[in-house]
Amino acid sequence: MIRSDVIKSLLPVIRDEFVVCNIGLPSQELHMMDDQPTNFYMLGTMGLSSSIGLGLALAQKQKIISIDGDGSVLTNFGTLPTIANNVADNFILLIIDNGSYGSTGDQPTYAGKKTSLTAVAKACGCENVVECQAEEAVDVMTAALASNKMTIIVCKCESGNIPVPVITKDPVTIRDRFMDALAAANG
Amino acid sequence: MDVNDRIVADLVKNKVELVTTVPCKQLAGVIDKIEDSKDIYHIPSNKEDEGMGICAGAIMGGKRSAIIMQNTAIGVTINTLATLIQYYRMPLPMLISYRGELGEPVACQVEMAVHTKALLAQMNIPTYHFHKESDIEEFDKILQYTFMCNKPVAILTDATFWKGY
Fold it and tell me: Which of A2, B10, B14, B126 gives the lowest tally of CB atoms within 10 Å of its CB?
C-alpha cells in the first residue's frame, strides 16, 4: 500500500473527525477522495501540520487528527518534544511514513534509512506511540480515537504517488468553513 | 505598573489565551510573567515557525494567540508568515526583542538588526517600534488593531525600551 491507499482506507474512520492535512499530495489526495469542511488543507508551509493540530487540540474540545509525513516531521523535528510536553488527549498525530519526500519526487528521507520516528517520538517523551503497517492503519486509528489519549501513530507504507489535481480552493474559504464546522461542533 | 505586567495585562484584556515563546535575554522577564499567568496557556516552542503553527491552530480553535520571539526569528519565519499566517488571513501579534540596536554588546546581533525592518516592510507587516518605556501605552491599541485586521503585526522592542541588557 502507498500513502493514498492508507488515506483511502481511513476515510470511513476519519470522515466525521476534524483533520489537518499535510502540504502537497496528502492534502490533494484527501481533497480529491473526500472533501469535507472538517478538513483543513495545508497549501504551503511544510512541516507544520503537527503544530497546527496541536494548537487546535489545546484550544478546544473536539478531537483533532493531524495527517503528517515522515519528511515533514523531519523538517519540523522540534514539534515532537513540544507535543510530548503539552499533552492534549484530543490529539492524534498520524505520521504516514513512506520513507520518502513523496510530493517532490520520492527522494528518500532518513526515516526510510537508519532513523526511526517511533523511537524518536518515544525519546522525546511521547507516551502513546504506535508503529503499524499500512494494512493496520484503520484498526490503530479506530483504537486511538476510542482511547481518548493523545496518540502518535507511525504508519509504515510504500513509496509512490497517484495523479491528483491541485487544490484551487481559496485558503480563506478552507479556513472559514473549517472554523465554522468546529465552532458548530463545540456548540 | 511594571512593563512586563502591563504586557500580560493587555494580552489578557484582549482575550489572548495562548502565547508561544522562544526565549531572548531581553524577554526573560515577560516570559516569566506569561508562565505565571493563570489566564494564558504558555507553550514554549523550539523554533519560531513551529510556534506560529501552534498559534494558527489555536486561532482556528477559537482562541486568540500571540508569539514572543527575537528579531533573528524573522529570518526563520518568512515562509510561515507568507504561506500560513498571511495566506489564510490570521491575526498574530508578534512581540519581538529588537536585538542589535543601541547598547547592543554582541556584534553579530547587528547583522540581523539591519535587515529586520526591511524584511517586515517587504512582507507588508504593520510594524511598531517601542523605544521608550512610555511606548507601551500603545500596546493595547496595537492588539486591538491586530485582531481587527487579521494580519500578523510586529512590535519591535529595543534595548532602550527594556532599559539595557
Answer: B126
